[in-house]
């Protein structure tokens, strides 16, 4: 028999009733870049140089990998994980601005990173590498072998990357009880050089025409020794203190993730089961020496460290069945997350090396979170209408276990509905409506029952009594898909109750920052996008958003009302001629408000050139943030605390890399 091979180009953008899928597998920027670079170039997303993600102005974003949460994509470690994960491993990015009940969104939008997984018969491999300024480089190899019912994929990579960070902070504080006042000023510059080692392994086995199993594992190790010199200038009353605080780490982090999947497809029925275990272990060494300028005194030494471990076990079961009207779906989601955190602070005798721990700021605790959820969805197709109804019942148990003291346990139950509607106004135009209600659980670090040392005038203390925030989101929109031009426009309205905000107090003239529920937030805005492909060689796209944010934040004299308008814009352009592919992406985020404060605007312009030297060899040059627009200012104006400053994560980079395909 003759063999017939049917080929076709994968759609760059696929719009579904509850999400938009962007194909980034051939993105030129990904060859040398990181996962953060790929997300920054994805429509609807805004990513700062420091790794903070927002979706259509919503900064409450859950990042999934292959549809599931992982320990490394949670908490403060997420930004580093995105900055050190290779962009060439990513096949597509799913943006879910208003998740259905089938997703555990933790109260916000979802960005799902789908990794590449080749199941084509035969053996394939590739080698990639790049070098950049500041002596940065990376090299990696990956490959796959598929024979009969078994497919094996694997990869290894070593990355030497880094970030140059500059920070300035000026603080004025006043104690309303004792009347004391003070000022502090801090400035620091540091280049964090990281060594990242990554190993991946995947197995896919076809049991029958209807059943298959897959196993995937990933291991990352990150190490750095940042030399940090912070100048501190403090004034309390008429006394001035000036000193340099010098530290050099080391900082370490390791991630492990193992995932086992089973799937069954037959006669309009699909069953998927998944068991996953992931953990992240980190150490941030805060040991330092204080070199005094005024008053003159001997150098002071201190030992400080923060250790953290996050373990996440998850089991899911998803079932769908085709019906006359559309499709039914239901599922179970069980998650157990354990966060172990330990803080150590001690003075060190510079002659003997003996350490004297500070009992007030040396402590440890664990936060156990158990989430049980069941959901049901009903997708109805009737003529030009498509409706996705959903309901998710969640039970959350939260237990804070201090190393010393009594554990505190809380329970919450909630039923969160979702609604997605799509109407085909014409063959190429759709109208959409979506609604979602959900809970956002407290960050484990905000539940710290103890005091954590930051500096001599600044301490941090959590609140184990925090409750989940309650969020509601509405969206309406329209989209039109033409031969050359595709457009979309929409509007959204979001509300948040029991919002977690900072609470500030004083202890012996030292500022103590804690957390509390009681804030409220509302945001409403409009978004629009346009993609234009005049021919096969040129592409152009732009998406913009303008939104108004209203915050009610508790302060000493009651709730403080803030109101401001913010906007963002992403521009994409590409041109292909012969073996050369040129692309540009530009991003702008205007200033906005935070509880009792503001942040400044940022921008970035990135250029990429890719040349196909042969069918198996390509060269890529990336120039990131060429005008160095990543500096972000901030300001806080509370009754007891006023702070101004900026964080500058320098993202300007030049990389030259290659990709060689084998087999």
Structure characterization notes:
By secondary structure, the protein is mainly β. The strands form 3 sheets. The protein has a 32-stranded mixed beta sheet that branches. Strands 1-2-6-7-5 form a 5-stranded mixed beta sheet. The relative contact order is 0.12. Residues about 1-10 have low confidence and may be disordered.
Gap from first CA to last CA? 26 Å
The global form is globular
Task: Write down the Rg.
Answer: 26 Å
Number of strands: 39
* Largest sheet composition: 32 strands, mixed
- Low-pLDDT runs: 1-8
Looking at how many chains there are and whether they match, the oligomeric state comes to single chain
User: How helix-rich are the residues, as a percent range?
Assistant: under 10%
What structural class is derived from the secondary structure elements? mainly beta
Overall average pLDDT: 89
Compute the number of helices. Answer: 2
């Amino acid at each position: 028999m003759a063999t017939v091979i049917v080929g076709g180009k994968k759609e760059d953008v696929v719009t579904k009733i509850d999400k938009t899928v962007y194909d980034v597998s051939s993105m030129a920027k990904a060859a040398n870049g990181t996962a953060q670079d790929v997300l920054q170039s994805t429509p609807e997303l805004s990513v700062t140089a420091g790794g903070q993600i927002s979706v259509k102005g919503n900064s409450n974003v859950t990042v999934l990998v292959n549809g599931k949460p992982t320990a490394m994509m949670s908490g403060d470690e997420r930004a580093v994980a995105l900055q050190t994960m290779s962009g060439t491993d990513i096949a597509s990015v799913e943006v879910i601005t208003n998740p259905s009940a089938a997703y555990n969104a933790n109260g916000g939008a979802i960005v799902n990173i789908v990794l590449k997984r080749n199941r084509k018969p035969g053996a394939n491999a590739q080698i990639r590498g790049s070098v950049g300024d500041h002596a940065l480089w990376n090299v990696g190899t990956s490959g796959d072998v598929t024979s009969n019912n078994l497919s094996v994929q694997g990869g290894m990579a070593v990355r030497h990357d880094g970030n140059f960070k500059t920070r300035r902070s000026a603080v004025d504080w006043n104690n309303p009880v004792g009347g004391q006042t003070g000022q502090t000023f801090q400035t620091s510059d540091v280049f964090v050089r990281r060594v990242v080692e990554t190993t991946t392994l995947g197995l896919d086995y076809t049991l029958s025409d209807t059943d298959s199993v897959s196993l995937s594992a990933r291991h990352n190790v990150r190490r750095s020794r940042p030399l940090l010199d912070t100048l501190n200038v403090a004034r309390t009353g008429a006394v001035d203190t000036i000193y340099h605080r010098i530290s050099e780490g080391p900082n370490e982090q390791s991630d492990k993730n193992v995932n086992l999947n089973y799937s069954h497809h037959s006669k309009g029925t699909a069953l998927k089961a998944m068991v996953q275990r992931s953990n992240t272990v980190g150490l941030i060494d805060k040991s330092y020496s204080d070199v005094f300028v005024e008053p003159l005194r001997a150098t002071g030494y201190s030992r400080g460290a923060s250790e953290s471990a996050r373990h996440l076990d998850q089991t899911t079961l998803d079932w769908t069945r085709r019906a006359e009207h559309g499709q039914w779906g239901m599922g179970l989601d069980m998650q157990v997350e354990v966060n172990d955190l330990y803080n150590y602070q001690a003075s060190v005798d510079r002659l003997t090396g003996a350490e004297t721990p500070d009992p007030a700021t040396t402590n440890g605790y664990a936060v156990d979170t158990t989430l049980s959820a069941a959901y049901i969805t009903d997708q109805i197709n009737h003529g030009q209408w498509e409706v996705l109804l959903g309901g998710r019942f969640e039970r959350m148990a939260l237990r804070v276990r201090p190393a010393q003291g009594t554990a505190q346990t809380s329970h919450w139950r909630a039923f969160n509905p979702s609604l997605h509607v799509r109407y085909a106004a014409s063959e190429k135009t759709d109208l959409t409506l979506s609604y979602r209600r959900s809970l956002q659980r407290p960050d484990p670090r905000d539940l710290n029952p103890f005091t954590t040392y930051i500096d001599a005038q600044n301490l941090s203390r959590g609140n184990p009594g925090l409750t989940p925030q309650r969020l509601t989101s509405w969206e309406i929109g329209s989209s039109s898909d033409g031969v050359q031009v595709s457009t979309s426009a929409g509007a959204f309205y979001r509300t948040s109750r029991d919002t977690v905000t900072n609470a500030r107090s004083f202890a012996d003239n030292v500022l103590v920052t804690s957390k509390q529920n009681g804030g409220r937030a509302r945001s409403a805005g409009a978004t629009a996008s346009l993609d234009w492909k005049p021919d096969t060689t040129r592409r152009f796209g732009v998406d913009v958003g303008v939104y108004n944010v209203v915050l009610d934040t508790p302060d000493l004299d009651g709730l403080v009302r803030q109101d401001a308008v913010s906007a963002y814009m992403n521009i994409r352009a590409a041109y292909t001629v012969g073996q050369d592919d040129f692309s540009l992406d530009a991003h702008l985020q205007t200033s906005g408000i935070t509880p009792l404060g503001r942040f400044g605007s940022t921008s970035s312009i990135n250029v990429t050139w890719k040349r196909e030297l042969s069918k198996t060899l390509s060269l890529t040059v990336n120039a990131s943030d060429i005008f160095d627009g990543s500096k972000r200012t901030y300001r806080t104006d509370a009754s007891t605390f006023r702070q101004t400053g900026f964080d500058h994560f320098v993202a300007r980079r030049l990389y030259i890399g290659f990709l060689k395909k084998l087999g």
